[in-house]
Amino acid sequence: xxxxxxxxxxVDVLARSxxxxxxxxxxxxxxxxxxxxxxxxxxxxxxxxxxxxxxxALKAMPEADWLPLVRQAAIDAMMxxxxxxxxxxxxxxxxxxxxxSLTVKEGTADAVTRAVEELRAKGLIYEGRLPPPKGQLPDxxxxxxxxxxxxxxxxxxxxxxxxxxxxxxxxxxxxxAYHLSKFRRGFTDLIDVWGxxxxxxxxxxxxxxxxxxxxxxxxxxxxxxxxxxxxxxxPVKMSKRSGDFVTLREVVDEVGRDAVRFMMIFRKNDAAxxx
Length: 275
Description:
This protein is of the alpha/beta class. The chain is 39% helix and 14% strand. The strands form five sheets. It has a three-stranded antiparallel beta sheet with strand order 3-4-5. Strands 1-2 form a two-stranded parallel sheet. Strands 6-7 form a two-stranded parallel sheet. Strand 6, helix 6 (202-213) and strand 7 (218-224) form a beta-alpha-beta unit. Helix 1 (9-25) packs across helix 2 and helix 7 (248-255) crosses helix 8.
């Protein structure tokens, strides 16, 4: 199962970046990419496709109207690229699960709201204040009353917020709804593959899985370290946000599918890898 991160602020940034490339495809001179947008050339074909499909019609629309159209086009293009890359490695996913699907209302509520209300009915959600984190306070720290999940009841270090100050749900709330969906579909041994930078998230997600399944499911998180690419003994410098990065497909094209598969599996996923 492949979980598509197609909801949240980052996807809107992707859409705005694709819209910039659309304007470029129509002949507008695009100089320096604004810092808040993604600068990679990989979005140029998305802009060209939007120009071919819509002409200059999107330029006349307010952002609220063009954003959902461009967002879906950008997501579809990225997923087509990802599916193609997976196929080049002979990897097949049976299910592609959309994060955005959790936010679509069915009746009076979406899946995230229903999951939160289910926990509330079990007495696992309350309104309260969190103690400030130890050490230097982060810039986004707010001392306010929040909607909190009793994750300490299941071995976590602190109870966790489910709503932001603007009233929208946190990523954690969406993740609870997703894992509830897995459990409802009959799966009790849940395996997630995450980047190592999300290691601090494991306890709260394990607590949530215990809560939603009433102990009937377990969560096994496989943390994967970053891969450092080396060519001729020198590191290949990459930055996704600056648009300077090597795709998995480029590596497959250069060294072959079998070499990539071997290099990725001959050591543990939580060990740093120099490829």
